[in-house]
Amino acid sequence: MNFPPPHSLSDPEKVASYACQVAMGKGWTNLQEQNHTSTAETEFRLSIKQRKDAILAARRPINHPILYTPANIAQARRNIATTSWGKAWYNELRQRTDHLIAQPAGYLEQMIPALTPTNPYGFTCPACVGRLSQPGAGAYAFSWDYRSPEVIRCKACGQELPDAHFPEDRTLVCPRRNQTFTFYLSPTEIANPDDLTGRHAWPWVSNPAYVSAAGIVRERKVVFMLKTLIQVLRPDGRYIPLSDTTVNTSPAAENFEIGLHVLSP
Questions:
Q1: In whole angstroms, what separates CA 101 from the centre of its chain?
Q2: To 5 degrees, how large is the angle CA 127–CA 129–CA 135?
Q3: What is the pTM of this model?
């Protein structure tokens, strides 16, 4: 987002107005030039592109085929057939992929939404904080299940989120990305709507934390889909370069079925 021009910073009233509008999630303010890119931003983006080009130019060559090799398949089959952890790994993966293959049209779009996920760091359960859980407990304080993907559950009290009793009515508007993020507030922030300093927010490592259960749900869904795809397309479970030159372009369900067929003892 572009910041107000330097001459505006000398006017305390304009600075206060700008800070208030940004903190309330208004997006563009009357102090900002829309659709304008500063010289500093242009130079920064160019430096990032040059760095990316240099990294890609120095990468190691890829030996094809990348998805399956005879050695990978043989090792995976041996582990599945001869070890308890291999059998457990395969059975759990089979259960997940059977579930995915059975889903209706539109499931991929539901599980990999266009709106950017948010980070689970600083998660605080609004239902039991201070009673059964502490503020800023983070990802260890909730669970998520791919069979009920639209909610997370507090491990301490069982509260499902998002929930209408804890509305996410604070917004962060990112107009240049055309995205709006929502967050739920602490009771003290709700009681002090004019205080935008963050002093009433839930703390996380001595910093104010704003929690979005909807954003965490998006993060869990995307991670689950990526993890499952990687495990099915690569028998040893290692990461593979995800590009149009290395990923099978057949439908997702067919990829899952192919992977399981190859791995079957």
A1: 23
A2: 130
A3: 0.69
